Amino acid sequence: MYWADELAAQARGPQVVNDSKTPSGTVHVGSLRGPVIHDAVWRALRERGVEARFLYGVDDLDAMDAAALLTADSVDRFMGVPLAHVPPPPGSSAASYARHFVGELFLPTFRRLGIEPEFYWMSEVYGSGRMDPYLRLALDRAERVREIYARVSHVEKPAGWLPVQVICEQCGRVGTTIALDWDGRTVRYECRPDYVSWAHGCGHAGRVAPFGGRATLPWNLGWAAKWSLFGVTIEGCGKDLATAGGSRERSDAIAREVFEREPPRNVMYEFLNVGGRKMSTSRGTGAAAHAIAEVVPGELLRFLFLRPRPHQAIEFDPAGDTIPRLFDEFDRIAAATAGREVKGELPPDHDRLFAHSLVDRSADAATHAAAFRPTFGHLALLLQIPGVEIPARMAAEKGAALGELELAILAERTRAAAAWLATYAPDRARIEVRREGLPAAAAELGEDQRVYLGALALAAETAPPGSGDGWQALLFEVANRAAIPAGRAFGALYVAFLGRTNGPRAGWLLASLEPAFVVARLRAAAGWRPGPAG
RNA sequence: GGGCCCGUAGCUCAACGGUAGAGCGGGGGACUCUUAAUCCCUAGGUUCAGGGUUCGAAUCCCUGCGGGCUCACCA
Fold first, then answer.
1. Are A263 and A282 found together in one domain?
2. What is the DSSP string of A290-304?
3. ipTM of the modeled complex
């Protein structure tokens, strides 16, 4: 069974699927795995007739901790301040940094992937007082919380430490405060200059009732509190959190022992790797989610995350074969779903996988599966050949006029292929006339090939063809006369002009170049050198 | 040190209890206006190793080896 259906089949009663994200930092493609997985689980539940909601929390009261994202002069002032209270970047009309970030990067990407959860903002949830019961519970049971940290994660909190993060009344930072004394109504807190290394508190100390948005719960408690508040029954997490003694285990224990509720069903998901290493923006191996989304259409991106089971790491190298291969595998699954014969093994319930890859969840999967899809690699090649009418060419390949859906797919793939060629495509996928000089590979040309090129130069100089057709005819004619097999003749041309042994239709390629350049290059490749003057 | 994931043809992976497969690469061939595209043929891999369960294991269990990630600061 398709993994999302397997999971859905185990659910009993109404379900609440939840996921969250702190809106800071660049989001690389790998971060999209969680949202796609949760969306698929939610869709699978609904499709089984299970009552289910899909929630997505924006943790915008978390502290700004990425200095790189702030302008130099605002680092001192805003590091450690809740993201909801940090002003947006210059020129943005958003109400806050968090709103800007989510609005600019998150929502558009989600929309392209057909992910439509119910969003909630933690700044609003805290502000409304709905978190107050959990804050109170956490404070009343602070001793137990400390014990859990020590037992589960071997983390020793300082004596008197309380599980709340007060927002400093003087400087507005949340990341720099420590709360120390709970009297049942208020806590005493200190905003310390050296509490964390990445932000500096102002030194203020005071007492405050930590409710109604004046304080937040630390990460693990906040997570567990959300489970209780929203009745979450399924929430996966990345494997970094799912490790023993890690965040998830801590939060699970807090849910059980502090908030007295069974934690949701976990779905551990693996990372997206580049070259066997975890994708990392700081290491320079990250590919920004929105950048990849430009090149890879939504259904393909969904497919990327849905094809492997969640616990399987995904090897993703945007500069390698990953992207074209992804298209091909998707097309194969589409063909199988449409009932066509395909090679190779199929994943379980490939039709379900296909349906879940579609961005529009109400779309008719059978219609989409049957639609004509141009091969990505082929499209990328055609795009580089002068004078190719792609829609007409595709209609010819299909053998019939393209329908509305097929034209839309073609347009999307054409855009994707163009973007791919402009960014990640490896050189061998690129066709480029080597204008700077004779490619080194020309040294490998055989004698018969040189003779052919020389003869061609002579013929072209005498009577230069004026069209692709004309060139093409000449190429064959000369090949015939020189008694060289067409394969070797054309191979020589590609080497001379492109530095590779194959390429697009040669006649049209040559027709797109100036005749003088063509003749000169043919001669050079043939081994002729301009003779000494006189 | 603890945990999790992975280890299948050169590469990327599929199959997840029922006679080991695909794509790409490599090799060979077909198409006498295409060499791109397309199509056909070809890889014979002790499924990391060793035990165990089973009528039957790449697939389940145990151990070891190798690789990766992660936790012990914050979210």
1. no
2. HHHHHHS-HHHHHHH
3. 0.86
